[in-house]
């Protein structure tokens, strides 16, 4: 041979193998040219150098596409190649051969050897393999892929094409980790596959997300099995079930058992084949393990005797249909190792070329059946209390309406019960205590209702009640009073007792609506109206309540436009030293004058801004107030007001995003304001917040140099220990205590205690709601430094301050 011809043999000394013919084989991807030893060329009837297509023409059609894909993928990606194939044409036709080598930089150097004596065994193995693969080719919902020991694709069924977007021709020969495994998982996949090969540690089945051709993620339930091919080499088969529709169904909460069976989480799959002429059945190893028979074949009747009596009868009822060529999908139950398992039997219609043969698969759907039950419960029950949720209440209410329409028996009463100011419990004692109290409320309500009444948790601190066969309005009124009466006694939770109140909204069929959706909506509208009355009340739905709800929507829409249209302003209320009435500072109060609504009271629009998120969005009302305060302080600098401190109120919602300290720092810098002149007022409930992020923001604001004031002190659950843990500079005594000074001994004692505590902690004091000289004198005598109220002036615009 020439030097060019000898070069492949020199390259392949490390992979030489013996055989009837053996020689070097070298492929260059760029030129698509092949070089081989003279022995190999002679045996195959080829030239020693030529195109790869000439070599492939000698390969059996059944192996040609897979071999081409493996050669091209190895030459492109690098790494090892080890493939066996049948020679279909030329002098060596009918022989089996092995091509093994390595690729680097677009050149695949390999050794090609024949495999004498392998023909009959390999042809038999191939026939079995084709039957195995045919079963999965006909399974439309189960994607199956096969990989050799190098993790290159050797099998890719039609369902895999549909699931992952790669056509069979594109996938064959590609590496598993480069095809459908997301980059973060690739190292783990290689490690797990290596451990299975070298240590026998199987890859566990489970849910995971693999990668589609277009880069999107595909959720699947994937199980794996390691088989041995005709040369006793390991081949891994992956069985993947598409979970995309199931996950969507879980989100929507409309699971049905039929959907879950179609989208079943299959952990294993087995194939079987029935020869009608001999009445013998063959099956895969996986199927054999389930029924304790091992892989192999047996007479059909012998196999049936291993099944439960009920399963045999179920199969027998369909046997004639299958014998006559009918397809079948049938769910079976069978005891396996003492446990009931559920299986999905799939029978294909017969192949016309072999009409006396039936093939099919058996899928274990036990886990998916159990998941269906769990998901159905989660979709219709509240996880914490175990009560039916809103979805189930709507369904049960529709069922009750259907019964009433067929056979009217009085009224249907729908009630929505909401706990009053329950947020304070969570803020003061933490969500764990709040959850415990919600469970206690559920138990107390459940104990009052009859067995056929429905109690549901609608969300948060709201419960729903459905009571049938209510005689008249008088009985409905009595029931409402009884439900609210359950909250007159305290709730025990741990070492403390909690007094809770509740509000109740009610609607009745047929007076207030004819559908579940309308009745629930009207009951919730009535609940909102009851809460507006201060809590502890109940309201039956009235048509004019919808008008009030519409007014709130219209007000919210106008409030969204108020800031950009210049309808908002700040008014300033003076804070004076009680001893000499000198001006110490002011509190900035947000006001809204709407062209359509006039002057809207703050207690109407500020809660609406908080509920809607307008108060805490970037650039929203909260940021606007802070910016105007900094502008005001900047205007005061250099003048007679330079010593004044300006207080701005903060909403608890402004702490949610975590950006509040940064916003304040930016505004102070932009306006050149001395931080000591800005005071930020927070509520007592925020001080009690157990969220560490809120606590960190309070200390970050303090580090900026601004003052922190605790507003409405004495109305919540704060304690001396809590005051010591937070960086508060000022306590503001709530107006509800100030108004009774001099007339109520308890109010006097409470204010005296607050003043004493503030002095002990070296905190400044501001008394709110000072309206009389007697109140001012009393506070001054106690040692309270500053007062704020109508005695010193009402809130006014900046120009009038």
Short description:
This protein is α+β, with helices and mostly antiparallel strands and 801 residues long. It has 30 helices and 34 strands.
Topology:
Elements: H1 3-11, E1 22-28, E2 33-36, H2 38-44, E3 49-51, H3 52-56, H4 61-77, E4 79-86, E5 96-104, E6 107-114, H5 119-137, E7 142-147, E8 153-156, H6 158-164, H7 168-171, H8 176-179, H9 186-199, E9 206-211, E10 217-228, E11 234-242, H10 244-252, H11 257-262, E12 269-275, E13 280-283, H12 285-291, E14 296-299, H13 300-304, H14 309-323, E15 328-336, E16 339-347, E17 357-364, H15 366-380, H16 390-406, E18 411-419, H17 422-429, H18 431-448, E19 454-459, E20 462-470, H19 473-485, E21 491-493, E22 496-498, E23 502-509, H20 516-532, E24 538-540, H21 544-562, E25 568-577, E26 583-594, E27 598-600, H22 602-612, H23 621-636, E28 645-649, H24 660-671, E29 678-683, H25 684-687, H26 692-703, E30 707-713, H27 720-725, E31 730-733, H28 735-738, H29 745-760, E32 764-767, H30 773-782, E33 786-787, E34 796-797
Parallel strand pairs: 23-24, 26-28, 28-29, 29-30, 30-31, 31-32, 32-33
Antiparallel strand pairs: 1-2, 1-6, 2-3, 4-5, 5-6, 7-8, 7-11, 9-10, 10-11, 12-13, 12-17, 13-14, 15-16, 16-17, 18-20, 18-23, 19-20, 21-22, 25-26, 25-33, 25-34, 26-27
Helix pairs in contact: 17-18, 21-22, 23-24, 24-26
Keywords:
801 residues, eight-stranded mixed barrel, disordered N terminus, alpha+beta, single chain, 30 helices, six-stranded antiparallel β-sheet, 34 strands, 41% helix
């Amino acid at each position: 041979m020439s030097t060019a011809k000898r070069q492949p043999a020199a390259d392949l000394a490390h992979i030489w193998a013996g055989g009837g013919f053996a020689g070097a084989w070298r492929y260059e991807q760029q030129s698509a040219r092949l070089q081989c030893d003279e022995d190999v060329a002679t045996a195959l009837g080829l030239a020693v150098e030529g195109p790869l297509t000439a070599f492939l023409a000698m390969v059996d059609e059944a192996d040609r596409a897979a071999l081409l894909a493996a050669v091209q993928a190895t030459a492109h990606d690098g790494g090892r190649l080890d493939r066996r194939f049948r020679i279909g044409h030329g002098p060596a036709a009918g022989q089996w051969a092995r091509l093994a080598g390595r690729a680097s930089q677009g050149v695949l150097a390999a050794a090609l050897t024949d495999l004498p004596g392998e023909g009959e065994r390999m042809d038999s193995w191939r026939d079995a393999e084709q039957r195995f693969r045919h079963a999965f080719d006909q399974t439309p919902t189960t994607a199956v892929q096969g990989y050799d020991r190098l993790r290159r694709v050797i099998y890719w069924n039609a369902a895999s094409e549909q699931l992952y977007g790669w056509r069979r021709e594109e996938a064959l020969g590609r590496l598993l980790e480069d095809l459908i495994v997301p980059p973060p998982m690739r190292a783990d996949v290689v490690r797990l596959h290596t451990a299975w090969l070298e240590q026998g540690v199987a890859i566990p089945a489970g849910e995971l997300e693999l990668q589609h051709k277009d880069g999107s993620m595909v959720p699947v339930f994937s199980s794996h099995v390691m088989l041995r091919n005709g040369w006793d080499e390991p081949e891994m088969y992956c069985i993947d079930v598409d979970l995309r529709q199931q996950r969507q169904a879980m989100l929507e909460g409309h699971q049905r058992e039929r959907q879950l069976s179609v989208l079943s989480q299959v952990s294993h799959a087995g194939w079987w084949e029935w020869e009608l002429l001999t009445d013998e059945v063959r099956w895969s190893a996986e199927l054999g393990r389930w029924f304790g028979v091992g892989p192999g074949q047996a007479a059909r009747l012998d196999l049936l005797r291993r099944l439960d009596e009920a399963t045999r009868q179920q199969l027998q009822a369909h046997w004639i249909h299958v014998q006559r060529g009918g397809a079948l999908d049938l769910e079976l139950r069978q005891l396996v190792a003492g446990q009931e398992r559920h299986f999905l039997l799939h029978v294909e219609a017969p192949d016309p070329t072999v009409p006396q043969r039936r093939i099919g698969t058996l899928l274990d759907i036990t886990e998916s059946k159990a998941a269906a039950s769990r998901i159905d419960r989660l979709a219709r029950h509240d996880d914490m209390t175990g009560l039916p949720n809103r979805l189930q209440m709507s369904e049960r209410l529709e069922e009750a309406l259907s019964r009433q329409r067929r056979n009217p028996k009085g009224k249907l009463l729908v009630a929505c019960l909401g706990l009053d100011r329950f947020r304070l419990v969570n803020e003061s004692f933490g969500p764990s205590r709040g959850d415990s109290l919600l469970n206690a409320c559920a138990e107390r309500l459940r104990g009052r209702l009859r067995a056929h009444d429905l109690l549901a948790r609608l969300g948060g601190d709201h419960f729903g009640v459905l009571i049938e066969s209510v005689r008249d309005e008088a009985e409905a009124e009595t029931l409402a009073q009884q439900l609210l009466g359950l909250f007159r006694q305290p709730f025990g939770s741990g070492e403390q007792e909690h007094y809770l109140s509740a509000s109740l909204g009610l609607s009745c069929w047929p007076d207030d609506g004819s559908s579940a959706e309308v009745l629930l909506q009207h009951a919730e509208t009535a609940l909102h109206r009851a809460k507006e009355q201060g809590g502890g009340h109940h309201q039956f739905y009235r048509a004019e309540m919808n008008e009030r709800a519409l007014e709130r929507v219209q007000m919210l829409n106008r409030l969204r436009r108020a800031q950009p249209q210049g309808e908002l302003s700040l008014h300033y209320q003076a804070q004076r030293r009680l001893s000499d009435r000198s001006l110490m500072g002011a509190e900035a109060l947000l006001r809204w004058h709407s062209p359509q609504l006039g002057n809207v009271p703050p207690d109407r629009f500020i809660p609406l801004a908080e509920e809607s998120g307008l108060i805490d969005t970037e650039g929203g009302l909260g940021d606007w107030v802070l910016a105007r305060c900094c502008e005001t302080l900047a205007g005061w600098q250099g003048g007679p007001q330079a010593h004044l401190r300006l207080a701005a109120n903060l909403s608890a919602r402004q702490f949610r995003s975590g950006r509040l300290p940064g916003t304040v720092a930016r505004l102070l810098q932009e306006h050149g304001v001395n931080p000591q002149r800005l005071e930020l007022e927070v509520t007592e409930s925020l001080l009690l917040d157990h969220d560490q992020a809120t606590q960190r923001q309070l200390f970050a604001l303090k580090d900026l140099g601004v003052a922190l004031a605790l507003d409405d002190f004495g109305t919540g659950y704060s304690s001396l220990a809590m005051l010591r843990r937070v960086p508060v500079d000022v306590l503001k005594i709530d107006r509800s205590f100030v108004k009774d000074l001099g007339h109520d001994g308890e109010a006097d004692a409470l204010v005296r205690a607050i003043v004493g505590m503030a002095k002990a902690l070296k905190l400044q004091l501001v008394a709110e709601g000072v309206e009389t000289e007697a109140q001012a004198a009393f506070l001054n005598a106690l040692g309270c430094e500053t007062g704020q109220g109508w005695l010193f002036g009402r809130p006014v615009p900046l120009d009038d301050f």
